[in-house]
Design brief:
mainly beta, Leucine-rich repeat, LRR (right-handed beta-alpha superhelix), two-stranded antiparallel ribbon, 3 helices, elongated, LRR_dom_sf, repeat
C-alpha cells in the first residue's frame, strides 16, 4: 500500500528504513488504513498542510507532528488515542493555525484541550466515551462545525461563545434538555437524534435550516415557530399525536414524522414547499383527509411514505395518491415515472 501525496511522488520503502519522499514540498499526506502503530517509518515534510491518519493503530502522537507549522487539517480518526495521548496537542504551539482537527472514533473520556488552535473551524470528537462538554469553553470562537455525537454527554453547556457555529452534532448522547443555544445565531444544522429530550427549546434560531430530533421522547411539536428558515425537520420515532406549531415554517421542504402516533396530518395546510413527507408507521385512517391537509403542497410533493397506516390498505392506493399529488415520483418504496 502506498502513501498518497498530493504530488503523486514515489516512495521507496525498505524493511528497516523510513519511507523516503521524493518531493519534500508535498502538502497532503494520506495514510488512511495503513494499520500503523507509530510513524517511525514515515517522513513528514515540513510543507504538509493536510495529514490524514485515519484507521490506523496509533496510541500516541508523534512529536514531529507538532512541528508542522503549515498544517491546516489533521485527522486522527479511528485510532487508539486516549486522554493521556492527546495531551501533547495543547503544547504544540506551532500548530496554532490548524483549521480542522478530527479525533473521531478513539478512546477519549473528555474534551481535549484545544485552546492553542486560534483559527479552528472544524472540531470532531464523535464516537468516543466523553461524558461532559467541559472544555469546550477553551475552543476558539472561530468554530463553524462541532461534532460530539455517540458519546455519553448529559448536558448541553459551554456553547455560548460559538457565535459563528453553523453545524452542531450531539446525536446519540444522554441529553434530556435543549439548552444554552440562544447565542448560536448563525446555526444552520442541529442534530440531536437518539437522546432523551422531551420538549423543543430553540430560542427562535432564525438561521436554522435542518434539525433532527429523531428517536427522542417528544410528545409535542411546539417550539419550532421562530425557526422560519427551516427546510428539513426530522422527528421520527417519538410520541407525537398531533402536527402543530409548524404553520410558520413556510420554507419547509422535508418533514419526517414517521413512527409516531398521528391520526391525521392536519396542521400542514400552510406548507406550500413540501417535497418529501414521511408519515409511515402512524395511525392515519383516510387518504381523503391527507388530500385536504396537504393541499398547499399538492403540486410540489414528489415523495410520500404512508406504509403501515390504515389508509395504506385503501383500494387503488397508489392510483389514488397519484391523483391527489400529480407530480409524485415515489410512494413508499415504489419509485415510478410521471406516466405511472
Amino acid at each position: 500500500m502506498d502513501a498518497v501525496y498530493e504530488s503523486s511522488s514515489v516512495l521507496e520503502s525498505k524493511e528497516d528504513d523510513p519511507m523516503i519522499v521524493d518531493d519534500l514540498n508535498s502538502t497532503v499526506l494520506d495514510l488512511t488504513s495503513f494499520q500503523l502503530h507509530d510513524l517511525d517509518s514515515i517522513e513528514l515534510p515540513s510543507s504538509l498542510m493536510e495529514l490524514d491518519l485515519t484507521a490506523n493503530r496509533l496510541s500516541s502522537l508523534d512529536s514531529r507532528i507538532g512541528e508542522l507549522s503549515n498544517l491546516k487539517k489533521l485527522s486522527l480518526r479511528q485510532n487508539l488515542i486516549n486522554d493521556a495521548a492527546v495531551e501533547s496537542l495543547s503544547r504544540w504551539n506551532a500548530l496554532s493555525g490548524l483549521e480542522e482537527l478530527i479525533l473521531r472514533d478513539n478512546q477519549m473520556t473528555k474534551i481535549p484541550d484545544a485552546s492553542i488552535f486560534k483559527r479552528l473551524l472544524v472540531f470532531d470528537v464523535s464516537f468516543n466515551e466523553i461524558t461532559s462538554l467541559h472544555g469546550l469553553s477553551k475552543v476558539s470562537d472561530s468554530l463553524t462545525e462541532l461534532y460530539v455525537s455517540k458519546n455519553e454527554v448529559v448536558k448541553m453547556e459551554e456553547l455560548d461563545h460559538f457565535h459563528q457555529l453553523q453545524i452542531l452534532e450531539l446525536g446519540s448522547n444522554r441529553l434530556r434538555v435543549m439548552e444554552n443555544l440562544r447565542n448560536l445565531v448563525n446555526l444552520q444544522e442541529l442534530w440531536l437524534g437518539r437522546n432523551r429530550i422531551k420538549a423543543v427549546n430553540l430560542c427562535g434560531l432564525r438561521c436554522l435550516q435542518k434539525i433532527s430530533l429523531q428517536s427522542n421522547r417528544l410528545t409535542s411539536m411546539t417550539g419550532f415557530e421562530g425557526c422560519i428558515a427551516l427546510e428539513e425537520l426530522y422527528l421520527s420515532h417519538n410520541g407525537i399525536s398531533k402536527i402543530e406549531g409548524i404553520s410558520t415554517l413556510v420554507n419547509l421542504r422535508i418533514l419526517d414524522v414517521s413512527s409516531n402516533k398521528l391520526t391525521s396530518v392536519s396542521g400542514t395546510e400552510k406548507l406550500t414547499r413540501l417535497e418529501d413527507l414521511w408519515l409511515n408507521d402512524n395511525q392515519i385512517e383516510s387518504l381523503e383527509s391527507i388530500s385536504e391537509d396537504v393541499a398547499g403542497s399538492r403540486e410540489k410533493l414528489t415523495t410520500i411514505y404512508l406504509e403501515n397506516n390504515p389508509c395504506a390498505k385503501t383500494p387503488n392506493y397508489f392510483a389514488r395518491l397519484k391523483q391527489i399529488f400529480p407530480n409524485i415520483q415515489q410512494i413508499d418504496s415504489e419509485i415510478f415515472t410521471k406516466n405511472f
